[in-house]
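Researcher: Please translate sequence to structure tokens.
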Amino acid sequence: MPSWLPQDPDDGPLMEPDAQIRSILSRMVVLIPAFNEEASLPGLLEELAEHLPACPVCVVDDGSSDRTVAVARAAGARVLRMPHNCGVGLAVQTGFIDAIERGYDYLLRIDADGQHPPAEAIKLIRQMAREPTDLVIGTRYGEGSAYTGTPFRRFVLWFLARFVSLICRRPSTDPTSGFWLVARPLMLCFALHYPSDYPEPEALALMRRQGFSFDEVPVMFRPRLAGASSLGIWGTINFAAKVFLALFVDRLRPVSRHGSAAFIKGRSAPCCAKLS
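Model: Translation complete:
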């Protein structure tokens, strides 16, 4: 049992925040989109088993050519296989749909490369328990983070954060973070509409236009457990150009009524389930 929860009734009365945390944990699934991550997954799944032992894990394999599927299954994770490399956006959206169909109320998204330490997930869960919202984002720009990046990449991410903050009308320090805790109403929205390719900044802009809210909590990031980032300097430039263009185009699209917070939260649970 994780050390941050009471281990025995004799330890004392269960406090309300602990009860809320337990409630979230009992209704949460962990989603890991993965593409050729056979080297990183075993260690990550071992950490998840240690820190979130009661939470089921779903790995969405995005057409890997290595042993990603085999190592995920060997660790006890449920595996969904995409027919080919469809991109992280579609892989994550598939995870949202699957979580809705299986009745989960919360989804913790963690990247397969190990940059999101499972031990830090409690910070997102605790924030959701204290101040319920649609999305809690773990931001790498916090005390204790081991995040490193080239000066150019850090500048691009800083500028993107300012731009996304302007669009969302709410401060966003780390719009490319994939360390998310998502509540069911937003899962329903994302099951209908979710960006492809590099989706996180676009998803934030989309959810805000649809009337959803988010909070951030500083967490420790770390270097990849294995391999290297696919984004070099030209990859960063291409990424930034595509994201800025997509954010501008998104402003021209009408708001989806069926994907709006008002529509989803205004319907009963059985009706909401049909949206998936």
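Researcher: Any highlights?
Model: The chain has one domain: 10-273.
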